[in-house]
Design a protein that fits this description.
This protein is mostly helical. The chain contains 19 helices and ten strands.
């Protein structure tokens, strides 16, 4: 995941997540009061808007601090990489300005203002949806329809629209999570490019090249991975604006565009590889076909999030969500088939709920963000702190492990651990490949998926692979996972097998003791 992509996750899963959750809970609470006391419907209608706006006002005050922290961390990292590139190409230079913080501050102010407006629209919309849903429910209830059915229908409607904002001039509906992501990417791209162009001006560099990836939007694939002139004055390279549409909604760095720009220094810079024949052989899809397949995957992921939202709302009301859970399993199976057929990567983060709380997933505004090994390891992190959020670095290591030559991987670990290749092969599949029924981080039930990445386990595996600086707990990890697998084959759940294996080989405790002794 790109570092700027992570901004959307940070902002949505922090302050914004709590806002959406509280708004949704308040609307359902007021609905309960309305269905029990129809004669108070008019007063509750006024109260719904007042309560919604009160919640928004409370959360909006936290937005500037939260967004500034996220943007500052991201841009400082970006600036460090830019300066390193220029210094490697041209040598050190004195007197460079510290501009990143100023750009981050302006971006954060812009983002906060957009989110304030978005949140007010959300509150206004939720109150109007509450009015329509509650009015219909009262009519159904008074006409003799079973109250249980009336409530279930209304709660589903409220849950289905809990993230919706409506522009009443155009009638267009927008999902708040999609809108927030779009706004974050827009602000991040603008900030990133202001920083980039400022540094390029300081170093008198006119040329940039665009990033490139397999499965790019067809009209963007035409210009990706090539060199362009910012000024348009180069005789050798085309104009950036004219060739890529930079600065427009549909062009480079426009809406939903993930392409980036990097300074190009002739004789030093290396352009990205745009030969995707190996990927095409692997997937059996052209780049355009792969793009279409990923777009379908995004639609399936949205359906899953919507169903999870309905399940959560029904269960919070003590209502039966059996039908929705059955539908969720069908949707998840559909994603698995689609991913397998098109050789895509399952993106579980996109299936996870934003904007709900659960007893397992969210506590007191803090977020449980990582599940490791076979059981749920709750790592609580304050919003805005990069360390402790979903462990992107560990996920990247896991992905590298999966993509390396499996035979060589297993042979190396077996050699250095003194376990048999058969035993290490079982452990490899168990930890990195096999899908298990494990608890969802958003509290929506069990999901069939590989284990979440865990940095201590990733580091243990890497030491065992290379044979360098192997620790006692690295071997303990292998023994734990092997024993856990044996218990699961006997029919135990992942949690039960994990706890029982801990009685003999407690890897997590051994890691803590090792770290407490000043190691890492």
């Amino acid at each position: 995941m790109d570092y700027f992509d992570f901004l959307a996750y940070l902002i949505m899963s922090g302050v914004q997540e709590k806002l959406v959750a509280e708004l949704g809970q308040k609307m359902i609470e007021l609905f309960e009061r309305g269905i029990e006391n129809p004669d108070r419907f008019a007063s509750l209608t006024k109260l719904s808007k007042v309560e919604a706006m009160r919640i928004v006002a409370n959360y909006n005050k936290d937005l500037p601090t939260a967004t500034l922290r996220a943007f500052t961390q991201a841009l400082e990292r970006e600036d460090e990489q830019l300066n390193k590139l220029f210094e490697n190409a041209f040598g050190k230079r004195e007197g460079l300005s510290n501009i990143a913080n100023n750009i981050a501050n302006n971006a954060a102010i812009g983002m906060s203002e957009i989110m304030r407006r978005q949140n007010i629209a959300l509150a206004d919309t939720q109150a109007d949806i509450w009015y329509r849903v509650t009015a219909e429910a009262i009519l159904r209830d008074q006409s003799g329809e079973a109250r249980k059915d009336v409530i279930e229908r209304a709660v589903r409607q409220l849950a289905r629209n809990s993230l919706t904002t409506i522009d009443y001039k155009s009638g267009r509906q927008t999902q708040i999570d999609s809108a927030i992501k779009r706004h974050v990417f827009t602000q991040a791209n603008q900030a990133r490019n202001r920083l980039l162009f400022y540094r390029m001006d300081e170093w008198e560099c006119d040329l940039v090249f665009t990033s490139a990836h397999y499965g790019a939007r067809p009209d963007h694939a035409e210009w990706q991975g090539k060199v362009y002139s910012r000024s348009g004055k180069s005789k050798k390279y085309p104009s950036l604006v004219e060739a890529t549409g930079y600065g427009t909604v549909t062009g480079l760095c426009g809406a939903n565009c993930r392409h980036t720009m990097t300074p190009y220094v002739e004789g030093y810079s290396k352009l990205p590889n745009t030969d995707y024949s190996s990927q095409e052989r692997l997937t059996g899809l052209s780049s355009d076909e792969y793009y279409k397949a990923t777009q379908k995957q995004r639609r399936l992921e949205r359906d899953i999030r919507q169903t999870k939202r309905e399940i959560k709302a029904l269960e919070d009301m003590g209502l039966d969500a059996t039908k929705e859970k059955r539908n969720l399993r069908k949707q998840q199976a559909k994603v698995r088939r689609h991913v397998k057929q098109n050789k895509l990567v399952r993106d579980y983060d996109r299936e996870r709920l934003w904007g709900v709380r659960s007893s397992r997933g969210y506590k007191s505004g803090k977020l449980i963000v990582r599940q490791s090994g076979a059981t749920l390891e709750t790592i609580i992190s304050e919003y805005g702190n990069i360390e402790g959020m979903i462990d992107l670095e560990a996920e990247e290591i896991y992905e590298k492990i999966r993509n390396r030559n499996r035979v060589k991987e297993i042979k190396a670990v077996a050699k250095h651990s003194k376990l048999t290749e058969e035993e290490v092969g079982k452990i490899f599949n168990h930890v990195f490949i096999t899908e298990h029924w494990i608890s969802e981080l958003d509290g929506s039930g069990l999901e069939l998926r590989p284990f979440y990445a865990d940095m201590p386990m990733a580091e243990s595996w890497e030491r065992l692979r290379t044979g360098i600086n192997i620790q006692e707990h690295d071997i303990l990890m292998l023994k734990h996972e092997l024993l856990e697998l044996e218990y699961m084959k006997k029919g135990m759940s992942t949690n039960a097998a994990h706890e029982l294996a801990n009685e003999k080989y407690n890897y997590q405790l051994a890691v803590k003791e090792w770290e407490n002794n000043g190691n890492r």
